[in-house]
Design a protein that fits this description.
14 strands, alpha/beta, 6-stranded parallel sheet, globular, two-stranded parallel ribbon, about 45% helix
C-alpha cells in the first residue's frame, strides 16, 4: 500500500507540474491554467501592484453564485478585492486611501444552501470565509420568495424548522457547517384547485391520492413478508398519470404534462420513471445530452466559415452548397460548375437542359438556379461575407449570408423552415450563432474557425453546449437535481432522497489527501479540528482541496470522515434545491426498504 501511495503522489505532482508546460508548448491553454497563472502573479513579488492595477481598471466586482467558487477563484478574489492590511497607513496617506477605497466595491451574491457542486471543485467554505470578512452591517438577506406560493413556503418553513428556533438547537435546519435554512415569506397566493376549493378535500381523489398539503411524501413502507406491488418509479408515474387525468386545475386551467418536473439524483432513476410514464401514455421531455457541436448545423456552419476564408477552394464551396443551408445535389453543383467554367451566364439553354434532366426532387432547386445566380455569384457572396466577418464580426457575416441566398428565391432561414425538421435546424443554427458571438470576441477569423472545429472534434458536454429543446416540445420534464438548479416547475416530484449518504472513498490509503493546509500560498487556510462541529467557518479557506501531501491528521480516516460528513451536508442541500424548484406543489418519494 505504501508503494501504491507513493506512486499516486508522484503521478499527481508530475501531472500538475508537466501539464501547464505541455499546453504552453502547444500554444494551448485552459481556463484553469489561466487562473493558476494569474494567481501566481498575484501572490508573487509584484502581486500587490498587479492587484492595484486590476482594481483600478475594474473597481466594481460582482461575483454571482459565489457559494460555488473553487479554491483558485477564491485566491484571486481575496488577492484583488480583499487584500490584507500590512502595516499602518501613514497619516498623510489615510485620506487618499479612504478616497480610493470608496471607489472600490465587491458584491458577493450567493446562497450557501444551494452549494451542491463539490464534485466539480466548488467549496462553500470559500464563500463562508469571505462573507466573514465583511461587517454585518454590509450583509443583505433576501427573505421574500417570489417563485413558490404561500402554501409551499409555509410547508418548507415547517419541514426545515420553525422560525423561532435557535440555530444551535434547530438541527433540521442545519445544511452544513454554519449554513442554516432561514424562515422566509411568500409573495404568491395558492393556485392549485384542491387547495382553494372548500369541498375539494372531501373528494376521494384528494383523500386517497392527492395530499391536502403542498409539500408531502409518497411513502412506500417496508414489509419483509410482502413484496411491493409497485416500486418508487411506478408509483411516481401512476401518481402523475392520476393527477393529469383528474379535473384539478392550475391557475384555472387543467394541469398539463409540461407543468410537472421529475427531479432525481441519477439519470438511471429518471430513465425508469420515463419508461413507466411512456407505458401510461404520458408524454415526457428529457434534458438533451446531445452537444450542439454534434449536430448537423454545427458541421454546416463550420463548412460555411471555411468557405468564407477559402473562397478559391471548390471542394469547400461545394461542401457548403450540399449542406442543409443550401440543399443542392451533386448534379446541381456539377451543372453550375460546368456553366461557370464554360462562361455561360444565367438563363442559358445549357443551364436549362440540366434542369430538365434532373429528378423531380431537385426540380425547384434547378429552376431557382436557372433564374437566379451562377457559381461565380456564390463565390462573390462568400467573399462579401468574409469582408463583413473581418470588419464587423462573425454575427454580421452570418446574418448577411443567412438573410440572402444566391441560388434560391428566398433566404436561407426561409429555406430551412420549409425543410423536414426545419424547426430543429433553425433552433440549432441560432444556438451555434450565439456561441460563435460569445466565444468569438477577441478571436481572429482563422483562430475562431480552429476553435470551432476543435469543439466539433471534442464535442464538449457542458451545459452551455447542450442542444436546446424546441418550444413546441412538451411533456413531463425529467432532469437531475443538479441541472434543475435555477429553474422552476409548478409541480415537482423528487426521487432518490431516501437513499443513505455513502461513505467517501478512503483516498488516504492511496496517498491522496483532500484537506492539506501546508501548500496554501494564501492566508485562506483550513484550521482543522478533530471535532467536526467545532470547525470555525470563519477560518475555513480555499486550500482545503489541495491534495498529494499528508496534512496534520491525528486519527485514522481523519480526512475521509471530514469528506463523508461534508458529502452528507451537500446531500441535504441537494434536497433543499429540489424542494424549492416547485412553485405550487412538491412530492418527495421515499422508499424505506432496507438496502443491502
Amino acid at each position: 500500500m505504501t508503494v501504491l501511495a507513493n506512486l499516486n503522489r508522484h503521478i499527481v505532482l508530475a501531472v500538475r507540474d508537466r501539464l501547464p508546460i505541455i499546453l504552453e508548448e502547444r500554444g494551448e491553454t485552459t481556463f484553469s491554467l489561466q487562473m493558476v497563472r494569474l494567481n501566481q502573479a498575484l501572490t508573487g513579488r509584484q502581486g500587490e501592484k498587479l492587484a492595484r492595477y486590476i482594481r483600478h481598471h475594474y473597481p466594481v466586482a460582482l461575483i454571482d453564485e459565489s457559494q460555488d467558487i473553487n479554491g483558485a477563484q477564491a485566491i484571486m478574489i481575496e488577492s484583488i478585492y480583499l487584500p490584507k492590511k500590512k502595516g499602518k497607513v501613514a497619516d498623510n496617506d489615510k485620506q487618499s486611501a479612504t478616497k480610493k477605497a470608496s471607489h472600490e466595491f465587491l458584491l458577493l451574491v450567493g446562497d450557501p444552501k444551494q452549494a451542491i457542486y463539490g464534485f466539480r471543485g466548488g467549496d462553500v467554505a470559500n464563500y463562508n470565509y469571505m462573507k466573514a470578512q465583511f461587517d454585518k452591517s454590509t450583509l443583505w438577506t433576501l427573505d421574500i420568495n417570489r417563485r413558490s406560493n404561500a402554501g409551499v413556503i409555509n410547508a418548507l418553513n415547517c419541514w426545515f424548522g420553525m422560525a423561532d428556533a435557535t440555530t444551535g438547537e434547530n438541527k433540521l435546519a442545519q445544511l452544513g457547517a454554519g449554513i442554516y435554512y432561514q424562515h422566509i415569506k411568500a409573495a404568491k397566493p395558492e393556485n392549485l384547485s384542491w387547495f382553494n376549493e372548500p369541498d375539494a378535500h372531501s373528494t376521494t381523489l384528494v383523500t386517497e391520492v392527492l395530499s391536502a398539503q403542498p409539500v408531502s411524501v409518497l411513502h412506500l413502507p417496508y414489509d419483509k413478508d410482502k413484496e411491493l406491488e409497485y416500486d418508487e418509479h411506478e408509483i411516481t408515474a401512476r401518481h402523475i398519470a392520476t393527477l393529469l387525468s383528474s379535473d384539478q386545475t392550475l391557475k384555472g386551467k387543467p394541469i398539463q404534462p409540461s407543468d410537472i418536473g421529475v427531479l432525481a439524483r441519477t439519470k438511471k432513476d429518471l430513465k425508469r420513471v420515463e419508461d413507466e410514464l411512456v407505458k401510461l401514455n404520458v408524454p415526457t421531455l428529457t434534458t438533451s445530452d446531445v452537444s450542439i457541436f454534434e449536430t448537423i448545423m454545427a458541421e454546416d456552419v463550420a463548412a460555411l466559415l471555411s468557405a468564407m476564408l477559402y473562397p478559391y477552394r471548390h471542394d469547400m464551396i461545394n461542401r457548403v452548397l450540399t449542406s442543409h443551408l443550401y440543399g443542392l445535389s451533386i448534379k446541381n453543383i456539377k451543372a453550375m460548375m460546368t456553366d461557370h467554367e464554360s462562361g455561360i451566364t444565367e438563363g442559358s439553354s445549357t443551364t436549362s437542359s440540366h434542369s430538365h434532366n434532373s429528378n423531380s426532387k431537385d426540380t425547384s432547386v434547378n429552376e431557382a438556379t436557372d433564374n437566379k445566380k451562377s457559381y461565380q455569384d456564390f463565390i462573390t457572396y462568400l467573399k462579401e461575407g468574409a469582408q463583413r466577418w473581418q470588419h464587423f464580426g462573425i454575427l454580421s457575416a452570418l446574418h448577411y449570408l443567412l438573410d440572402k441566398n444566391p441560388i434560391q428565391p428566398q433566404g436561407v432561414w426561409q429555406a430551412l423552415a420549409a425543410r423536414p425538421e426545419g424547426d430543429r435546424h433553425i433552433m440549432d443554427l441560432r444556438h451555434v450563432m450565439d456561441i460563435l458571438a460569445q466565444y468569438g470576441l477577441g478571436m481572429g477569423e482563422h483562430e475562431l474557425l480552429a476553435w470551432f472545429r476543435q469543439n466539433i472534434d471534442a464535442a464538449p458536454n457542458s451545459d452551455w453546449a447542450k442542444q436546446y429543446p424546441l418550444p413546441t416540445e412538451s411533456g413531463v420534464q425529467l432532469m437531475t437535481i443538479h441541472k434543475s438548479k435555477g429553474l422552476e416547475f409548478p409541480i415537482v416530484y423528487v426521487l432518490g432522497m431516501g437513499d443513505a449518504s455513502r461513505k467517501s472513498g478512503n483516498k488516504e490509503d492511496y496517498g491522496l489527501y483532500l484537506y492539506n493546509a501546508q501548500q496554501a500560498p494564501s492566508a485562506l487556510v483550513h484550521k482543522s479540528t478533530e471535532v467536526y462541529h467545532s470547525i470555525d467557518s470563519e477560518s475555513t479557506g480555499n486550500q482545503r482541496r489541495f491534495s498529494s501531501l499528508k496534512g496534520s491528521a491525528t486519527t485514522e480516516d481523519y480526512y475521509t470522515n471530514i469528506e463523508t460528513r461534508e458529502d452528507f451536508d451537500e446531500l441535504r442541500r441537494l434536497g433543499y434545491v429540489a424542494f424549492t424548484r416547485a412553485s405550487f406543489m412538491s412530492c418527495c418519494e421515499i422508499l424505506t426498504i432496507k438496502r443491502i
